[in-house]
Design brief:
The protein is an alpha/beta fold. The protein has a single domain, classed as DNA polymerase III subunit chi (Rossmann fold). Helix content is 30%, strand content 23%. Strands 3-2-4-5-1-6 form a six-stranded parallel β-sheet, sandwiched between helices.
Length: 141
């Protein structure tokens, strides 16, 4: 069963996602980032090119020729995921087919536009019996 982790209290969701991905990348953890909106995907892509400030976090899209050897994949769809390890949801909806992944990460900011849909997703997962972990990240990831 998919282990679901909610990291909540972020001041800025995209910044928190980038910081989490930097850590995952440094640990060699492959992550598929579900980011279905083109604008948000472009914002995250630009952010990862400059995060950390002195470097860059390796990432690409699923159709890139280096996707098989790149730890972070930014995907607008989940029809043919490259792995079933860790999925980071950057959507405001339940990711389609999330249950095929071993781990699902949800990063939630303090903004109502983000927090309220996050609560609905948390309720959805809890009602279906998924193991949930929550952690406050207002200070740091």
């Amino acid at each position: 069963m998919t282990q679901i982790t909610f990291l909540h209290g972020a001041r800025d969701r995209l910044q928190a996602v980038a910081a989490w991905l930097v850590r995952a990348s440094s640990e060699g953890k492959p992550v598929l980032v579900y980011v279905p909106t083109g604008e948000r995907e472009e914002q995250l892509d630009r952010l990862l090119w400059t995060h950390p400030a002195t470097g860059f976090t390796p990432h690409c899209r699923p159709d890139d020729k280096l996707a098989a050897e790149t730890p972070i994949i930014l995907a607008s769809g989940l029809d043919s995921p490259l792995h079933d390890g860790c999925l980071l949801n950057l959507s405001d909806e339940i990711p389609p087919g999330f249950s095929r992944f071993r781990q699902l990460i949800e990063i939630i900011s303090i903004e109502d536009d983000d927090r309220l849909p996050g609560r609905e997703r948390f309720r959805f997962y809890r009602e279906r019996g998924y193991p949930l972990e929550t952690r406050e990240i207002s200070g740091d990831i």
